[in-house]
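Sanity check. The docking grid for MGD depends on where the pocket ends up, so I'm generating a full predicted complex first rather than guessing from homology. Inputs follow.
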Amino acid sequence: MDSENSTIPEAENPEEFTGLKRGKIKTIAAGIPAVISSMEKVIGEAGFSRGMKALWSLNKKGGFDCPSCAWPDPDDERSPIAEYCENGARAVAEEATAKKLMPAFFSENSVSDLAKLSDYEIGSKGRVAQPMFLPKGATHYKPISWNDAFGKIAASLKSLASPDEAIFYTSGRTSNEAAFLYQLFVREFGTNNLPDCSNMCHESSGVALGESLGIGKGSIKLADLYEAEVILILGQNPGTNHPRMLSALQKGKKNGAKIISANPLPETGLMGFSNPQTVKGVLDMDTALTDLFLHIRINGDMALLKAIQMLLIEEDEKNPGSVLDLDFIEKNTIGIEDFKLHIKEQNLDELVRISGISLIQIKETVEILKHKTKIIVCWAMGLTQHKNAVDTIKEVVNLLLLKGSIGKPGAGTCPVRGHSNVQGDRTMGIFEQPSDSLLQKIEENFGFVPPKEHGLDVVNSIKAMYTGKAKIFFGMGGNFVSATPDTTYTAEALRKCSLTVHVSTKLNRSHLVHGEEAIILPCLGRSDIDTVNGEKQFVSCENSMGVIQSSKGILKPISDDLLSEPMIVCRLAIAMFGNTSTVNWDDYEKHYDTIRDAIEKTISGFEKYNERVRIPGGFYLPNCNREGTFDTTTKKAHFNIAPVTTLAMEADDLMMMTIRSHDQFNTTIYGLNDRYRGIYNERRVILMNEKDISNRGLKDGDVVDLVNNHDGIERVANKFIIIKYPIPEGCSATYFPETNVLVPVSSVADKSNTPTSKQVILKVKKHMAESI
Ligand SMILES: Nc1nc2c(c(=O)[nH]1)N[C@H]1C(S)=C(S)[C@@H](COP(=O)(O)OP(=O)(O)OC[C@H]3O[C@@H](n4cnc5c(=O)[nH]c(N)nc54)[C@H](O)[C@@H]3O)O[C@H]1N2
Ligand SMILES: Nc1nc2c(c(=O)[nH]1)N[C@H]1C(S)=C(S)[C@@H](COP(=O)(O)OP(=O)(O)OC[C@H]3O[C@@H](n4cnc5c(=O)[nH]c(N)nc54)[C@H](O)[C@@H]3O)O[C@H]1N2
Ligand SMILES: [Mo]
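Predicted complex below; grid placement will be based on this.
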């Protein structure tokens, strides 16, 4: 960290404790406390009538799409009262807040003073209410007109030696309409430098599924969860991050599904659920969800999956076809013989050791799966953010292929997406590696030749800024400095830029850790009314299961000086290209239907977009796996052969996963509690196994420093309180983004280049001269 007197704005949270309080780990998620908690937050931030109005419209057909996670809404019946969860309500509260930051706020608070606050404090300041500019060498932001802001950005972009010196990041809340225009603008400018939050999130899933199954998205619909016989949940904490998934699991379970979850933590939502949207739930009558909990070691999933498959194959050999779906395998797949040989070569004892799951439990899993054919596997960051993430997800696919569990009702892949439109942004072409067909369509439809060379993803963008190869950073949403790995390095990379620009709703740390000049462009959020030429507009999003739906805000914007994201892109493009452009930017400014017409011409699956998006509940995009086909090079699904790998660790090393608390949405910190895990009023904690604590001569409550050594560089995060927690030996957990300083920028997943945020090797050292 910088010294106290430094005026360089701080990239990390202050090393101060907020007053840890402890409670019991909860066994049941949601119920009445969740309802109370969400109402309190919304009313507190937005006021009663504004708050209630927002909640009433949230996820209703014709309402606005929840800005929290990407979990789908039911296709048919939606709850007449509430089709949202506690954390969705909190995301709305954040956005619907009545607090706004006027020029006086920025003249009273210097950038470096604001950066001394915690993320929680920065976020609670409110919505940015007008465009703001930080001139070179200045200590305070000052107001700027929209025209001047666009003029400055255009002039800076034009001054670059090459368009590849600019980086255009996207977070996953951006609507389809805004995302489409944004990638079009960036490609007309002349670069494919379009990193996005996916690079840190489900990139590994996209790569694995694309290579094995021919489509980088999941195959199931929501209703498949109601029909499944077995649902496996690997590396996901739905109780906090996708709470509405619990209702679907509950329904599946009622219909007879067995649920198996594997997690290093006994996450509350996996264990039990009390549905706040049913009468029984309001009376707090609960359902136990998980039938078999596998208390797996961090990154033990590949070994577990191989052990399960070994025993399934052995069982099948006793009576061929009784366990494996040989017809499906024969007709649809490639590589089964080599795969079986590979599995037979594995050492079962080693697999047991690496996974941390006993042979008895592995056999129980196999018993559950053996004669079932409708199997769904759900996963999230617990599988995607490891060095071998792509191969682990391919191992998930191997299991589903053995059982013929893809392309039929009640079965398939379910990577549970994060941001509410992260999947849609990709569909719209936000990708540093565009397909040839997209580029060809752009050329045909828009009259310019887009760049063909692949651009930079998140990790490579950071490195390019650090080494001076990239000079301008433009963020369409998100909080780049806090969300990315290696905070010290990344902050330095951003500081080296000549200009950093953020299109944002709320103030965040990335506005404070800035380039020579910086600009904040404040935009409308999902819940805000968006009026163009006197007509209310709507946008559209794609959820985790490929449904496109409209989203129309209902709240009066907190300021007249906000622009929508599509409008920001249009006006920037006009400032940039003037009348030299072959794209009709003026048209897109007039009505969003014109943007959807352009999308329809360019992206497949959007036939009659404007008509179908107006159907209540929206429409499904085509999905080859769902239809039982595989769009790979061979038109077959591929079994993948990969060894079980482990990272070299010293005897006193711990493996750390960086996870979300219940009170946060990524870098937006709603509060300081993690209610389900029984941790209150403190985020600087490290969850450790009892034995790991005592072996180090430490005790619960001690304050420690966390040290990572990777590639000869020492990374340190000071002052974390030890919490004894049921986590396997050798494993530990902390909250992100406080520990992102420890995630090495060069430690990435093979093939997907995703930072290994769940696989950080560290030593804990007693913090000296400090007590709490
Ligand atoms: N309220 C709320 N909702 C959110 C978000 C939020 O921050 N807050 N974030 C959104 C985003 S962008 C995303 S990507 C998703 C994230 O959703 P999750 O992936 O559920 O989020 P994480 O907190 O990263 O949790 C990862 C889970 O995987 C487990 N895990 C870690 N390593 C391993 C492993 O090696 N093996 C196994 N089997 N398990 C492991 C952890 O114990 C934890 O339960 O949620 C989205 N929804
Ligand atoms: N160590 C560690 N690091 C991680 C992860 C992890 O598990 N561990 N998870 C990774 C994952 S999965 C993800 S997805 C990334 C998330 O990375 P990002 O998407 O970059 O981060 P967020 O915190 O979601 O961004 C929040 C900011 O977005 C802005 N915002 C909110 N709504 C809108 C909107 O409608 N429009 C615009 N323009 N701006 C808006 C607000 O200003 C807010 O401060 O973080 C990654 N980083
Ligand atoms: Mo994510």
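Relevant for the grid: Residues 687 and 723 are 5 Å apart (CA to CA).
Also worth noting: The chain is about 35% helix and 15% strand.
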